[in-house]
Design goal:
alpha+beta, 45% helix, 15% strand
């Protein structure tokens, strides 16, 4: 049986002999003229070894330290300059690519149909596909950063609720493909503008470590997006809920696994040392570990959840509705006052934070499936823009000669009017 020692015991086991070795080495340097042997070696002369014993005067340790310091200052300075220049170059290039992504932002309205229904498992797999399609390798992430996208819910000036996708234009096909597979009749309609109402801004983060999960697909019983749309439809102020998502690197996945295993080891250790501590037999701990297990072996994403609007009271109520997602973890509100202008700009350009929250700013796709969905037709209290017609896919054998066409799809520039179609059929 293998026994895993605690960290402090392993540290003592390693540092104890190392300290004894360092003390012996220091005593040897003080009593022997090692600097003379070092000078002989550098000059190419026969080396006196073992070094002669020193008698009085400056200690050998100080001579050797001075010799080594004098010879290492030059190379160390050069390495430091190279590292500093490389770090500045990487920072500048990432800022340039971040600015380019903001400049190439495209916003598409996700207009659902009356019949689109998706279960949480399919939503989870859709986000897995999106993360796999836009994730960058570690060296690409280091040089130009990681691409991101934003899912937004708006209550507009006309009182309608509409859903949008905001992402750099080159990423739209990679994101639209899985979404159209999830919702076959959804329309992606490009919108020209961006929301600018940000009199009040609230951010939401996890209260505890991201290893402890929010509601996931295992306890899905209602659609949170329908409740959110109903609440926003009852408000009398323009409001936006923005969820910015950025795939996390593989290092974060390994770290999440280590954090969960560390929690298990701590419970086992407490169970052995304290007879009154239930340890792994605690029903509370068992529930939290089971919830944490739902986030493992799933894609992880940095997230930044923002609620902005014209009325602070409406923003506060909208942010408070996210308490429905409480489980082993929960989302807490943080009102932005001094940095409101900064987050208003990030909301307008759908930008993530440059420094992600490693403790409480990470979501798994199993959690994301309950945070975001397109509402079903049963959400009747909110005025939601919907597409009245289902898509009709043309067979591949159909004639596609431009000179003989009667109808074209929504992705083309021209659509034949109904009267023209009837006239053509009568001929």
């Amino acid at each position: 049986m293998t026994i895993r020692m605690p960290f402090w015991q392993r540290a003592v086991l390693v540092l104890g002999p190392l300290s004894v070795l360092c003390l012996w080495l220091w005593s040897y340097l003080q009593s022997h003229d090692l600097a003379r042997s070092l000078r002989q070696f550098v000059a190419g002369k026969p080396v006196t070894w073992p070094p002669a014993t020193r008698r009085g005067g400056q200690s050998g340790a100080e001579d050797v330290a001075g010799e080594l310091a004098g010879r290492l200052v030059g190379p160390t300075r050069s390495v430091a300059i190279v590292l500093l220049a490389g770090g500045l170059l990487l920072a500048v290039m990432r800022l340039v690519h971040r600015h380019r992504r903001a400049g190439r932002l495209a916003t598409f309205e996700l207009r659902p149909s009356r019949d689109d229904v998706a279960n949480p498992y399919r939503v989870q797999e859709t986000f897995e596909a999106i993360v796999g399609a836009i994730s960058a390798r570690w060296y690409e992430r280091l040089w130009r950063g990681q691409d991101h996208f934003a899912l937004e819910t708006h209550r507009g000036r006309d009182g309608l609720i509409y859903f949008t996708l905001a992402a750099p234009r080159r990423l739209v096909p990679a994101i639209a493909g899985p979404l159209e597979d999830l919702y076959p009749d959804v329309r992606l309609i490009e919108q020209p503008g961006r929301p600018r109402w940000a009199a009040a801004v609230v951010r939401l983060k996890k209260r505890r470590s991201h290893v402890l999960s929010l509601q996931t697909t295992r306890d899905y019983e209602h659609s949170f997006s329908e409740s959110l749309a109903a609440l926003m439809g009852s408000l009398q102020a323009n409001t936006t809920v923005q969820l910015v998502l950025c795939p996390a690197p593989a290092l974060i996945h390994r770290r999440a696994r280590r954090l969960l295993k560390r929690r298990e080891r701590a419970l086992n250790r407490a169970d052995r040392h304290d007879p009154l501590d239930p340890g792994m037999d605690s029903v509370v701990e068992a529930k939290e570990l089971k919830g944490g297990l739902e986030t493992q072996h799933r894609s992880l994403l940095y997230f930044d959840l923002r609620v902005a609007g014209e009325d602070p009271e409406a923003v506060r109520r909208t942010a408070g509705s996210f308490s429905q997602l409480r489980s082993e973890n929960e989302l807490v509100r943080r009102s932005m006052r001094l940095r409101r202008w900064l987050y208003a700009r990030r909301l307008e350009h759908a930008l993530p934070n440059p420094l992600p929250g490693l403790r409480s700013g990470i979501l798994s796709t199993s959690e994301l499936a309950t945070v975001w969905q397109l509402p079903r037709a049963r959400a009747k209290l909110a005025r939601i823009r919907r597409s009245p017609l289902r898509r009709a896919v043309a067979p591949p054998e159909i004639c596609r000669d431009p000179a003989r066409r009667l109808v074209v799809d929504e992705q083309q520039d021209r659509v034949l009017r109904r009267q023209q179609l009837v006239r053509a059929l009568r001929r």
